[in-house]
Amino acid sequence: MRRLGSVQQKVPCVFLTDVREEASRKRERQQFQVVATEKVNPVALAANVDCALATEKLDGTCCYVTLHHDQLHLWARFDRKPNKQAEKRFKKHQHTHNSCKGFSWNVEEDFKSVPEAWIPAHRVKHLDGRPVPDEHGHIPGWVPVERSNKQYCWHSSVVDYEVGEALVLKPCCDDDDDTLEITAVPLADLQEQTLELIGTNVNGNPYGLGSKQQPVHCLVPHGRLQIRNPPAVNFQQLCSWFQESPEGRVEGIVWHCNDGTLVKIHRHHLGLRWPDGEPGLASRPVVIRLDRTADAYSSSQGLLASLLPLNGRRFGRLRDVQCEL
């Protein structure tokens, strides 16, 4: 399988979008809604989106695996955002000009501070050696996940730095059906990849993983959950697919184009609810596959050690794993 695009920055919609002055279905307290028009985005057309690989867009939080102090680490998404005064000026400019273009930032004064170990995402533009914000007023970036940082405790639960492995959800290699597997993957195999952290305490847990008493989280490499019979990149066909197809019980689609371009569609772009019933991922069968012995995870404080007693067990639905921990 070819190496898929890394989600380092905001992925554009496969259609051109419009902004409506109505409450957002996706974000609380946001008094505008970004909706798709029926015109395909020129970026998607230039990347030949009709020949792209269609994959499931997951409802979680983005992560990244790369080096930190010469050791592979999981990194959490941390966008540098403007302070209140700068954000107020930015929104005023947007309202006056109906556009983000032409706004001038002072990166040193207009933005909140970031942790010392923060790094900007790939392809962030720089001016005079300093990263500059994107059209939305953010500077996408990452911070390393350390076990001592309680803010990222759910990220920490899926990685064991001593063993050098992470807990990953992916399709089974030896099955032709919809079976998934939860397995330990060496961080070296995930280096420079982005993944989605999903689970009990992420984005309202639409997939029904775990419980408050026994939280369950895992990483899903971006692009691994392929859509077998994707609809054409057509507004009406996509609307029908999301509402009528069993495969359409997903948050959205991300297309991985051959030149590395990524484009997406979210249900909210089409005026559709999410979640709407049980997501397809939650109802897929899953098997636990951990090859290590109990001694290997003896010092682990995360899920790798907790799931080891379930090694080899098969569950009828992904969300059923919570009942056995």
SSE layout and pairing:
Blueprint: E1 15-20, E2 33-40, H1 42-46, E3 53-57, E4 61-68, E5 71-77, H2 84-97, H3 107-110, E6 119-120, E7 126-127, E8 130-131, E9 141-144, H4 153-156, E10 159-160, E11 165-171, E12 180-186, H5 187-190, E13 194-199, E14 217-221, H6 235-244, E15 252-256, E16 262-266, E17 286-289, H7 303-307, E18 314-315
Parallel strand pairs: 12-17
Antiparallel strand pairs: 1-2, 3-15, 4-5, 4-13, 5-9, 6-9, 7-8, 10-11, 11-12, 13-14, 15-16, 17-18
Give a verbal description of the structure.
With 325 residues, the protein is of the alpha+beta class. Helix content is 14%, strand content 27%. It folds into 2 domains: 243 residues, no CATH class; 56 residues, no CATH class. The chain has 7 helices and 18 strands. The strands form 5 sheets. It has a 6-stranded antiparallel beta sheet with strand order 6-9-5-4-13-14. Strand 15 and strand 16 form a beta hairpin. It is globular and about 60 Å long. It starts with 14 loop residues before the first strand and ends in a 10-residue tail after the last strand. The mean pLDDT is 89.
Overall outline? globular
Number of discrete domains: 2
- Strand % is 25-35%
Structural class: alpha+beta
- End-to-end Cα distance, whole Å, is 33 Å
Q: Summarize the biggest pleated sheet.
A: 6 strands, antiparallel
For the biggest β-sheet, the strand order reads 6-9-5-4-13-14
Organism: Fundulus heteroclitus (Killifish)
GO molecular function, one term: ATP binding
Pfam families: RLIG1
GO biological process, one term: RNA repair
